[in-house]
């Protein structure tokens, strides 16, 4: 794939990206109105859309067949747009994330259950684990954007397999757009993803909170257990 094609990946898909953004907005609008009122909701959603459209050309590009990482990057761009809009109105990173968290949970509820079951089955399959292993090995020599990670073998009891991220395009994306304080919250998107897709994610540290790695551990049938200095269960 040529560099030009990689750079144009998101720009070429701008109409679809905006359509997906609007779909999420329509789903979550009632939640925002219930918290802040209709006038503020209309203002913040309009401004968030403008921010997202402006961010599209700047979403980090990655080469190769990496649909999952691209999905995570797009979600992070949604959340960054919301944060930038909320910040203009004096709202905190925590308040912005609470709305993003609700939006993601509501959006994920629209995924058909059979799709969730299929994705869960595939996630713990030998095929996906081997794919993750190979991609991890490649990123040690040639990072995917700023993504670099190592595969971690399961211990046969506490987790089935895992990865340690030593580089993260999402974290750099936040820092590049003056949103470093929001970065630890963006990492918390994995709560809704793990709960919905059955990752059984266990994570105790992230690059965004100053650690040397993000230690993802996955347990089939397990509960999501994420430690974070910016989040307490029940938010």
In short:
The chain has 235 residues and is an alpha+beta fold. 58% of the residues lie in helices and 10% in strands. The relative contact order is 0.12.
Query: What percent of the residues sit in helical stretches (DSSP H or I)?
Result: 55-70%
Strand count, sense and barrel status of the largest sheet are: 5 strands, mixed
Strand order of the largest sheet: 1-2-4-3-5
CA-atom Rg in angstroms: 18 Å
Overall pLDDT level:
91
Q: In what range is the share of β-strand residues? A: 5-15%
Total of domains: 1
Q: Unreliable runs, pLDDT <50, ≥5 residues? A: 1-6
User: What is the strand tally?
Assistant: 5
What is the N-to-C succession of helices and strands?
A: HHHHHHHHEEHHHEEE
What shape does the CA trace take? globular
| Amino-to-carboxy terminus distance | 43 Å
Structural class of the secondary structure composition? alpha+beta
**Number of separate helices:** 11
Description:
The chain is of the alpha+beta class and 235 residues long. The chain has one domain. The protein has helices at 3-7, 9-12, 14-36, 38-55, 67-88, 93-108, 113-123, 126-141, 169-176, 183-186, 189-197; strands spanning 148-153, 161-167, 201-203, 214-218, 225-226. It has a 5-stranded mixed beta sheet with strand order 1-2-4-3-5. Helix 4 packs across helix 5 (67-88) and helix 6 (93-108) runs parallel beside helix 11. The longest helix has 23 residues, at 14-36. The chain is globular and about 55 Å long. The termini are far apart. Residues 1-6 have low confidence and may be disordered.
């Amino acid at each position: 794939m040529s560099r030009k094609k990689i750079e144009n990946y998101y720009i070429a898909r701008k109409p679809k990206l905006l359509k997906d953004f609007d779909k999420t907005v329509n789903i979550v609008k009632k939640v925002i109105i219930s918290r802040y009122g209709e006038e503020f909701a209309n203002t913040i959603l309009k401004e968030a859309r403008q921010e997202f459209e402006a961010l599209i050309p700047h979403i980090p590009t990655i080469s190769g067949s990496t649909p999952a990482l691209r999905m995570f990057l797009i979600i992070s761009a949604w959340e960054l747009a919301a944060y930038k809009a909320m910040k203009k109105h004096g709202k905190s990173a925590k308040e912005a994330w609470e709305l993003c968290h609700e939006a993601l949970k509501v959006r994920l509820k629209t995924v058909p259950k059979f799709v969730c079951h299929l994705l869960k089955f595939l996630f713990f399959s030998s095929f996906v684990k081997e794919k993750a292993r190979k991609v991890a090995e490649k990123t040690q020599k040639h990072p995917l954007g700023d993504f670099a990670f190592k595969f971690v073998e399961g211990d046969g009891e506490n987790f089935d397999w895992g990865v340690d991220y030593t580089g993260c395009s999402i974290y750099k994306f936040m820092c590049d757009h003056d949103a470093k304080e929001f970065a630890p919250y963006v990492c918390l998107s994995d709560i809704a993803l793990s709960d919905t897709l059955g990752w059984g994610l266990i994570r105790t540290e992230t690059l965004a909170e100053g650690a040397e790695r993000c230690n993802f551990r996955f347990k089939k049938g397990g509960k999501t257990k994420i430690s974070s200095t910016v989040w307490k269960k029940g938010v």
